[in-house]
Design brief:
Radius of gyration: 24 Å
Order of helices and strands: HEHEHEHHEEEEHEHEEHHEHHH
Number of helices: 12
Oligomer: single chain
């Protein structure tokens, strides 16, 4: 009897301690997010409105952690080209890196840029490039050298088009002119007689066109709408050069190492959701941007398939050059190119020019 009473008392005390044990306090993690582009840029805006709330929502389900987000955009910490270095140095814990500015440090990120005239759909390219990044170690290794952890790629444009101050119908209309671009897309001009590529960025394309520094600019409809390009380049050649991944969400490696696994898992999960969400938004906004471009007085000329083929064939095979350059470094460049083209084909997109078919 005494043993039974003692056992009951012990159980009661144990239950009482469980009932009255205070819940573990929620841990707050300070996180600085940076991008040199302004908050109005679509991918930045969606990071604030989609990525952050979704991370918060998932962490709130357990209540173990919450993030104290500190967002810094528009050049207050870094300029657009400085995000990679900023995250590397720890000026930001998470950054949206514009990869086209860093072809020497992040060469594998140019995969979609070296394969033009295939897909004018941000959703397809985003998924395919992100899968390549996770199936092959190359992209993640490049970011690791920059003291960063790759979270997910981003495609913010449905496809590059050509915006001009005068009407154009084909690549021959670009002969002898100056064309603004950013990064690898300037190589699209190499087969066009006396066409000169001029490197620039979204924030200065308007002024480049307005001042006559360039005659044309390669950018996408949503960006053209955001930055009022119709005012200085009211003619768009719908060339459908292709969607290109230009944004990658990364985390500072030291910051990432300190994060609890639960937070890492949530951020990686949401990064993929953000990837697909931004790509879908890019497609929706592209359609509305085209309508707005015309509403504001812009004129659109659709490029014929024969003209697309002629332009593609005039170019050097920059895809094979890209792959072979990686091969020489011991990276699987040729395998990545073949795998990427295969993913696009399985998604229903065949290249106007099969870049991978020309691999040795």
């Amino acid at each position: 009897m005494k043993i039974t009473k003692l056992l009951c008392s012990t159980i009661a005390l144990t239950l009482a301690s469980l009932i009255w044990t205070p819940a573990m306090a929620t841990q707050t993690i300070k996180t600085v997010v940076i991008d040199g582009y302004p908050a109005k840029a679509m991918w930045v805006n969606e990071f604030s409105k989609f990525f952050i709330p979704n991370v918060n929502k998932r962490l709130a389900e357990t209540g173990n952690y919450k993030i104290d987000w500190q967002e810094s955009y528009g050049g207050s910490i870094v300029k657009p080209k400085g995000v990679l270095e900023g995250v590397k140095l720890g000026l930001g814990d998470i950054g949206i890196v514009t990869t086209i500015f860093h072809s020497s440090k992040l060469p594998s990120q140019a995969l979609s840029a070296v394969t033009p005239f295939i897909v004018a759909d941000a959703r397809v390219v985003a998924k395919a490039v992100d899968e390549i990044a996770k199936e092959f170690p190359t992209m993640q290794k490049e970011f690791a050298k920059q003291n960063q952890v790759y979270l997910a790629t981003g495609v913010v444009l449905d496809t590059y088009q050509v915006f001009s101050e005068q009407p154009i119908k084909s690549a021959t209309d670009l002969e002898g002119s100056k064309v603004a671009g950013a990064g690898m897309n300037l190589r699209y001009l190499e087969g066009i007689n006396n066409a000169a590529g001029v490197r620039g960025g979204l924030t200065n394309f308007y002024n480049m066109l307005q001042t006559g520094l360039v005659d044309h600019a390669m950018l996408w409809p949503e960006a053209a709408n955001t930055f009022k390009v119709v005012e200085v380049a009211p003619y768009m050649l719908q060339a459908n050069l292709g969607a290109v991944n230009t944004k990658t969400v990364t985390a500072n490696a030291r910051y990432w190492k300190k994060l609890p696994q639960e937070v890492k898992d949530v951020m990686l999960e949401v990064a993929v959701l953000y990837r697909d969400h931004v790509a879908s938004r890019a497609m929706t906004r592209a359609r509305s941007s085209l309508r707005n471009f015309q509403k504001e007085g812009g004129s659109i000329t659709k490029m014929e398939k024969e003209a697309q083929l002629a332009w593609a064939n005039s170019m050097p095979n920059i895809a094979v050059e890209w792959a072979e350059a990686l091969d020489k470094k011991g990276e699987p460049g040729s395998e990545m190119l073949r795998a990427y083209i295969d993913k696009l084909a399985r998604a229903g997109y065949d290249p106007i020019r099969d870049w991978s078919a020309e691999l040795p």
